[in-house]
C-alpha cells in the first residue's frame, strides 16, 4: 500500500460517473435532515429514503435531475438545489414530492421552465427560480398547479418577456420577487390574474414597462418595492384607465435614481393613488437640488400619504439644496417622517411649522449641530410631535439641546444617543410630557438634576458613570450597561423601578437592606444582608474561569509538545494509513488512466513542466502524465484524492532535489510526509535525482526514504547534453516496465 501513502500534497481526479452514482451522501443516514451541500457532487446521490424531510444539495456540480433520483423521498418538505449547474430536468423528476413545501433551484443553468416539473407539487409554498438563464416563462403558466404557493422569486439578467398567461393559477402571494433588470416586453394584464400580493419586489430599468406593471398591480399588491430604476418623465399616468378602489398602501424605491423634474411629476401622479399611505426611498440618488415644480405639486391637491422614509439618499449637490419654499400645504397631513443617513443639517423654520400632524420624526445619522437644531425646532414648529430621534448627529451641548426640544409641547420620547456631549449641566429645561430619554454613548461623566424627574424610561448606557444617585419617582426602566459603577443604585430614590440593566460595570457592593435575593431559589425573597453563600456559589464564574485557564494551559503545553515531536504529522500519517487499508492494493487495469503520476517540488516546476513533460508526452508513442497543476480538480479531502489518484497511475515518478528536501520538508510537512511510507520492495516507484542530495539533510523521521535511496536504483539527471539522451531512454524504459 505504499503508493497510497506516497504523496500527501497531490489532489486526485474526479470519481467516475459510475462511482459517483453509487456513492451516497455520508450525512444521509437515518436522519431526517440530509446535508450534502458543497461536496463536489456531479449527481444526486443514491440511497435517499422516505425518512428524509430536508435535503440540501446546494453548491455542488449537479447538471441533470433524473426521474428516479428523488423517487423514494416521498416525505420531503425542503429541497435545496441552488448554485449547481442544472441545465435539464426529466419531466417527472418531482412526481413523488407531493409534500414538498420549499424548492430552491436558483442560480443554475435552466434555459426554460416546464409546467410538468411542478405538476405534482400540490403542497409547494416557496419557489426560488432566479439566477438561471431562461428569457421568458413560456407561452402558458408554469405555475398553474401550485395552488398553495405563497412566495415566488424568479428572473435573471436575460429575463426579458412576461406574457398574459404566465401567472394563471396563482391567486395569492405573500412575497413575489421579479429580477427584471432587462425586462423589455410586458403584455398588459399579465399580473392581473394574481388577486393579492402582500409584498412585491421588482428590479426593473425600463420606465415604460414599470408603468404598465404598476397599473396592473394597483388592485392586488399591498407593498410594492421597486429597485434599480432610473425614473424619468413619462407622459402616461400611473393610474390610466384604472378603477377604484386601489389596494396599494406602501411604495418603496431602492437603489433608484431621480431627477428634480421627475420628483415633481411622481408626487403629482402618486396623489391619484388614494390608497397609498407610506412612501420610502432607500439608497437612492437625487440628481438635482430641490428645484421642483411647486406650482404643479400644489395645484394637484392633497396626498393621502401619511408616512415618508428617506434613508441614505445621495444628493450630489446637497449643499445647494433649496428650502422647498411653497411646499407647506403638502406636508400638513404627514404623521411620520424619517430622513436618516442623508447629510441633513437643518429644516427651515417656515417649513417645520407646517408639519402640524406629525407625531414621529427620525433624523438619526445626519449632520445636525446645536445652532441648526435651534432653527429646526423653532417656536410653533412640529406642534404635535411625540417621538423625536436625533441620535448619531453632531450635537455638542446637552443644555442647548434640552432648551430646543422644550419647544415641543407634546414630546414623549427623545433619543439623543451617540452625540458627543461630554459634559452635563446641573440644571436643564425639558418638556413636561417627556417620559423616555436615551442618553447612551454621549460621553457624559456623571448624572445631575439636568435629568428630568418625569421620566419612566432612562438609558444612560455606555458612558463614564461612576455612580447613580438620582431621585426619579416615576422611573420604571433603567439602563446602565457599560459604565464604571462600583455599587448598585439605591432602591429608595427609584421606588417604581421594574427593570434595570447593569451589565458590564465594576460592581463590588450595594445596599444590602434595600435588595432581596432572586436566586438561588433556596434564598429567593430573603434580604441580601441575611444570606450567606459558599465560595463556589458566590464566585462560580471565577472558579470556572480558573478551570478554563488551567485547561487552556494544559492544551497549550500538549500542542507545544506535539509540535516539537511532530505529533500532528504522525496522526495524519496514521489516518492516511487507515484510509489506505480500506482500498485494494491495485486498481483493475480498466481503471488505469495514467502512465505515471509525477510528484515534484514547486521549486523544480520549470524543469518538470518545460523539459520532462515535453520529452515524455511528445514521445512516440506518447506517455500520459498526471500533474497536479494541470489534471487535478480540488474538492475532496486530500488523502481520498491521493488514494484514487495513485491507484489510477501505472507508475509514480518522484523528482528529488536538494531544495525539495531542505526547504519544503522543513516548512510544509503536509507536502512531503508521503515519502515516509515507502515500501522499498515495490517496483512501481521511479526515483529521479535532479541533483545530489546529502543524506544528513533528510529529516530523521523520513528514515524509509533514506533506506530506499540506499537500496533502490534511481536515475540521475546528467548536466552533460550528450548523456541526457541515455537518461531519457532509461526513464522511458522504466515507465514501460
TrEMBL record:
**Where this protein primarily resides, as one coarse class?**
membrane
List where the protein spans the membrane. Answer: 542-563
User: In which compartments does the protein localize?
Assistant: Membrane
Q: One GO term of the cellular component aspect? A: plasma membrane
- Using the record, list the residue span of the signal peptide; answer none if the entry has no such feature: 1-20
Record's bilayer topology term: Single-pass type I membrane protein
User: Which SMART domains does the entry mention?
Assistant: LRR_BAC, LRR_TYP, TIR
Query: Molecular function (GO) terms listed?
Result: transmembrane signaling receptor activity; triacyl lipopeptide binding
Q: Which cysteines are joined by disulfide bonds?
A: 28-34, 349-378, 428-450
- Give the record's keywords alphabetically: Disulfide bond, Glycoprotein, Immunity, Inflammatory response, Innate immunity, Leucine-rich repeat, Membrane, Receptor, Repeat, Signal, Transmembrane, Transmembrane helix
| Gene Ontology biological process | inflammatory response; innate immune response; toll-like receptor signaling pathway
Tell me one Pfam family matched here: TIR
Family label: Belongs to the Toll-like receptor family.
Quote the protein name from its UniProt record.
Answer: TLR21 protein
What is the source species?
Glareola pratincola (Collared pratincole)
Lineage, broadest ranks: Eukaryota, Metazoa, Chordata, Craniata, Vertebrata
Q: Gene behind this chain?
A: Tlr21
Amino acid at each position: 500500500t505504499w503508493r497510497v501513502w506516497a504523496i500527501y500534497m497531490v489532489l486526485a481526479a474526479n470519481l467516475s460517473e459510475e462511482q459517483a452514482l453509487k456513492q451516497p451522501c455520508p450525512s444521509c443516514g437515518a436522519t431526517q435532515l440530509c446535508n450534502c451541500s458543497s461536496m463536489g457532487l456531479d449527481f444526486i446521490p443514491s440511497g435517499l429514503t422516505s425518512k428524509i424531510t430536508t435535503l440540501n444539495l446546494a453548491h455542488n456540480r449537479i447538471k441533470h435531475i433524473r426521474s428516479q433520483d428523488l423517487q423514494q423521498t416521498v416525505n420531503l418538505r425542503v429541497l435545496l438545489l441552488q448554485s449547481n449547474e442544472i441545465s435539464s430536468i426529466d419531466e417527472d423528476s418531482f412526481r413523488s414530492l407531493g409534500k414538498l413545501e420549499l424548492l430552491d433551484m436558483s442560480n443554475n443553468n435552466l434555459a426554460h421552465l416546464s409546467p410538468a416539473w411542478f405538476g405534482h407539487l400540490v403542497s409547494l409554498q416557496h419557489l426560488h427560480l432566479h439566477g438561471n438563464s431562461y428569457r421568458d416563462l413560456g407561452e402558458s403558466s408554469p405555475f398553474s398547479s401550485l395552488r398553495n404557493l405563497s412566495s415566488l422569486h424568479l428572473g435573471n439578467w436575460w429575463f426579458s418577456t412576461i406574457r398574459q398567461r404566465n401567472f394563471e393559477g396563482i391567486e395569492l402571494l405573500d412575497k413575489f420577487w421579479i429580477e427584471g433588470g432587462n425586462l423589455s416586453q410586458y403584455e398588459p394584464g399579465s399580473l392581473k390574474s394574481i388577486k393579492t400580493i402582500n409584498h412585491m419586489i421588482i428590479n426593473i430599468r425600463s420606465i415604460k414597462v414599470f408603468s404598465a406593471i404598476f397599473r396592473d398591480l394597483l388592485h392586488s399588491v399591498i407593498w410594492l418595492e421597486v429597485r434599480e430604476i432610473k425614473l424619468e418623465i413619462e407622459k402616461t399616468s400611473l393610474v390610466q384607465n384604472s378603477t377604484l378602489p386601489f389596494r396599494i398602501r406602501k411604495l418603496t424605491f431602492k437603489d433608484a435614481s431621480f431627477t428634480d423634474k421627475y420628483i415633481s411629476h411622481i408626487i403629482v401622479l402618486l396623489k391619484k393613488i388614494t390608497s397609498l399611505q407610506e412612501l420610502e426611498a432607500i439608497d437612492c440618488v437625487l440628481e438635482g437640488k430641490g428645484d421642483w415644480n411647486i406650482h404643479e405639486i400644489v395645484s394637484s391637491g392633497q396626498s393621502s400619504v401619511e408616512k415618508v422614509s428617506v434613508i441614505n439618499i445621495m444628493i450630489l449637490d446637497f449643499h445647494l439644496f433649496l428650502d422647498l419654499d411653497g411646499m407647506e400645504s403638502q406636508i400638513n397631513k404627514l404623521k411620520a417622517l424619517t430622513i436618516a443617513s442623508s447629510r441633513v443639517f437643518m429644516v427651515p423654520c417656515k417649513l417645520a411649522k407646517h408639519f402640524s400632524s406629525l407625531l414621529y420624526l427620525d433624523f438619526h445619522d445626519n449632520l445636525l449641530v446645536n445652532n441648526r437644531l435651534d432653527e429646526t425646532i423653532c417656536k410653533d414648529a412640529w406642534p404635535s410631535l411625540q417621538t423625536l430621534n436625533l441620535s448619531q448627529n453632531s450635537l455638542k451641548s446637552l443644555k442647548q439641546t434640552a432648551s430646543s426640544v422644550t419647544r415641543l409641547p407634546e414630546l414623549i420620547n427623545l433619543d439623543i444617543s451617540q452625540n458627543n456631549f461630554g459634559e452635563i449641566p446641573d440644571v436643564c429645561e425639558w418638556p413636561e410630557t417627556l417620559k423616555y430619554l436615551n442618553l447612551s454613548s454621549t460621553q457624559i461623566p456623571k448624572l445631575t438634576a439636568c435629568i428630568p424627574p418625569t421620566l419612566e424610561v432612562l438609558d444612560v448606557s455606555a458612558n463614564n458613570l461612576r455612580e447613580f444617585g438620582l431621585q426619579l419617582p416615576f422611573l420604571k426602566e433603567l439602563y446602565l450597561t457599560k459604565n464604571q459603577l462600583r455599587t448598585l443604585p439605591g432602591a429608595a430614590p427609584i421606588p417604581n423601578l421594574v427593570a434595570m440593566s447593569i451589565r458590564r460595570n465594576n460592581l463590588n457592593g450595594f445596599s444590602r437592606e434595600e435588595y432581596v435575593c432572586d436566586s438561588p431559589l433556596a434564598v429567593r425573597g430573603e434580604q441580601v444582608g441575611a444570606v450567606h453563600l459558599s465560595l463556589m456559589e458566590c464566585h462560580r464564574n471565577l472558579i470556572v474561569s480558573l478551570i478554563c485557564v488551567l485547561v487552556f494551559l494544559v492544551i497549550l503545553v500538549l500542542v507545544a509538545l506535539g509540535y516539537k515531536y511532530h505529533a500532528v504529522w504522525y496522526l495524519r500519517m496514521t489516518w492516511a494509513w487507515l484510509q489506505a487499508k480500506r482500498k485494494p492494493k491495485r486498481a483493475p487495469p480498466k481503471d488505469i488512466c495514467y502512465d505515471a503520476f509525477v510528484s515534484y517540488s514547486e521549486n523544480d516546476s520549470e524543469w518538470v513542466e518545460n523539459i520532462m513533460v515535453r520529452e515524455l508526452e511528445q514521445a512516440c508513442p506518447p506517455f500520459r502524465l498526471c500533474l497536479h497543476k494541470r489534471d487535478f480538480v480540488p474538492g475532496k479531502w486530500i488523502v481520498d484524492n491521493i488514494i484514487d489518484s495513485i491507484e489510477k497511475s501505472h507508475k509514480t515518478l518522484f523528482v528529488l532535489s536538494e531544495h525539495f528536501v531542505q526547504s519544503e520538508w522543513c516548512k510544509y510537512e503536509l507536502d512531503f510526509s508521503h515519502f515516509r511510507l515507502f515500501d522499498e520492495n515495490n517496483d512501481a516507484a521511479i526515483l529521479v535525482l535532479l541533483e545530489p542530495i546529502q543524506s544528513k539533510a533528510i529529516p530523521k523521521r523520513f528514515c524509509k526514504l533514506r533506506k530506499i535511496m540506499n537500496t533502490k536504483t534511481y536515475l540521475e539527471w546528467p548536466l552533460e547534453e550528450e548523456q541526457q539522451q541515455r537518461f531519457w531512454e532509461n526513464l522511458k524504459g522504466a515507465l514501460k516496465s
